[in-house]
Amino acid sequence: MRIGILQTGLAPDVLVETSGDYPDMFARLLAGHGFTFQTFRVVEGEFPASVADCDGWLITGSRHGAYEDHAWIPPLENFIRDAYAAHVPMVGICFGHQIIAQAMGGRVERFAKGWAIGATDYDFDGQHITLNAWHRDQVTEKPANAKVLASNDFCTNAALIYDDRMLTVQAHPEFRPEFIDGLMHTRGKGLVPDEVMAAAADRLSDPIQDQTMADKIAAFFKAKRHNVPA
Hints:
The chain has 230 residues and is α/β, with parallel strands linked by helices. The protein has one domain (2-222): Class I glutamine amidotransferase (GATase) domain (Rossmann fold), CATH 3.40.50.880. It is 30% helix and 25% strand. The chain contains seven helices and eleven strands. It has a nine-stranded mixed beta sheet, sandwiched between helices. A two-stranded antiparallel ribbon has the order 5-8. A hairpin with a 7-residue loop joins β9 (147-151) and β10. It starts with a strand and ends in an 8-residue tail after the last helix. The mean pLDDT is 96. One of its GO terms (cellular component) is cytosol. It holds the Pfam family GATase. Keywords: Glutamine amidotransferase. This is Glutamine amidotransferase.
């Protein structure tokens, strides 16, 4: 099964040498599930010709806001809606989670309560899961056709499912603790409050259930689709 990675952001150059860029992280996260990957740098205007070019799509995280004025965001939203209409499965992570919600009629905003950084606990459809997070924006109003799969006291819409067509997650299952540590020493400085950074640093060694989330993503991609247009 070929998964097209729609890359909407770039990892800091200083961290790429050790952690790889975002597509590398997803290939590592989903290793062993029988996927091949093709990357499209939509953040630089590189788009697939059609939603049928791959068997499924994955939208990465980004330092950009879904509500910002970038030339690549409107065509990405159109691509999302086209994939949904064609029943091509799509997964969105962090920014991907947010841009899918926005494209489908939800609202994304800079969250008044600030940042979620590092190991974060979620109630994921009745299952306790800890995943790494790195976000200040949130889906504050989910689309009407989205069901909440995961939440916590800080993030109500932490994971959404759109029938059997789209699965989106606010957290970063692809981020390992060392990458979170690297972000804290690069992008976090002067941006994330010291107390939030300190709390995240205290939890860097906490176990995360990244492979539990990887299994959920893989199962979603491989699931038999219903009511697929002829």
